[in-house]
Backbone:
């Protein structure tokens, strides 16, 4: 039985929808003992501590990592089904996944060129795709999307708060923490206490509907819980840092992301392509 980190909640969400269980197991078995591991591209600022932590997890698993920032001197050569990324230190052909940690909307010509080149690889795993990240960052749409997905909203209401929660979603797993703080804003409280907490089944389903709605594999979500026990959605950050939370709680968030990027066969969940926008007419629960 695979060890479950403290505070992690296993979910049945399968972003890829790639077929029946037997087919998935066959692909897992085919991946065991295969050739050299493909490279993970990481696009992040040079001082990004969250990206640093994921790089350490990947290299500890002997995975190849090619990290650079958008302003680095990198050349790209793309044809359908083929991509070569080259800088002064290394050359990578056909990476299998991208960890996109670049903040903000994709506005620069350099970023658009890079994304266009990466589209040459249709099976590339994005955590997260910048288009999905940009959509999910539109605060004016988040409340509507959250309500459509079944989450109670905190905005516009006077809610008596019992405590706050931070839920980190990675692929098919949740890492929830209850936050105990004497201050109205726990982010300003260096003495805040973080405790693992169970997530109600209805909230688990709603969170993964929201992830599916935006086509996300990673996000941090904040909630406020009232004395009656209702979880009220506050916001979702598809590119939120987690390094500080992992250090304070011991939750294995970086390991889960490394698994997602490296496609480890023991817990791979067919993460080939994001689902994309949730279909209102699909009738999904």
Residues:
């Amino acid at each position: 039985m695979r060890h479950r980190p403290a505070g992690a909640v296993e979910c049945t969400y399968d972003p890829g929808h790639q077929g029946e269980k037997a087919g998935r197991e066959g692909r897992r078995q085919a991946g065991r003992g295969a050739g050299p591991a493909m490279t993970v591209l990481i696009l992040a600022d040079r001082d990004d501590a969250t990206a640093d932590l994921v790089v350490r997890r990947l290299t500890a698993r002997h995975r190849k990592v090619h990290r650079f920032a958008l302003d680095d001197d990198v050349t790209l050569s793309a044809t359908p089904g083929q991509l070569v990324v080259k800088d002064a230190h290394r050359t990578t052909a056909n990476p299998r996944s991208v960890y996109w940690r670049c903040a903000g909307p994709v506005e620069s010509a350099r970023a658009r060129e890079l994304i266009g080149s990466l589209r040459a690889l249709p099976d590339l795993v994005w955590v997260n795709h910048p288009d999905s990240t940009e959509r999910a960052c539109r605060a004016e749409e988040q409340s509507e999307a959250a309500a459509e997905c079944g989450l109670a909203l905190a905005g516009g209401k006077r809610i008596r708060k019992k405590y706050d929660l931070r839920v980190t979603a990675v692929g098919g797993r949740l890492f929830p923490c209850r936050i105990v703080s004497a201050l109205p804003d726990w982010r300003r409280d260096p003495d805040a206490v973080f405790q693992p907490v169970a997530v109600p089944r209805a909230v688990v389903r709603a969170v993964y509907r929201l992830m599916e709605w935006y086509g996300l594999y990673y996000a941090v979500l904040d909630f406020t819980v009232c004395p009656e026990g209702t979880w009220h959605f506050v916001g979702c950050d598809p590119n939120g840092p987690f390094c500080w939370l992992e250090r304070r709680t011991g939750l294995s968030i970086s390991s889960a992301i490394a698994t997602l990027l490296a496609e480890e066969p023991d817990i791979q969940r067919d993460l080939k392509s994001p689902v994309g926008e949730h279909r209102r007419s699909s009738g999904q629960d």
Observations:
- Residues 201-214 form the longest helix (14 residues).
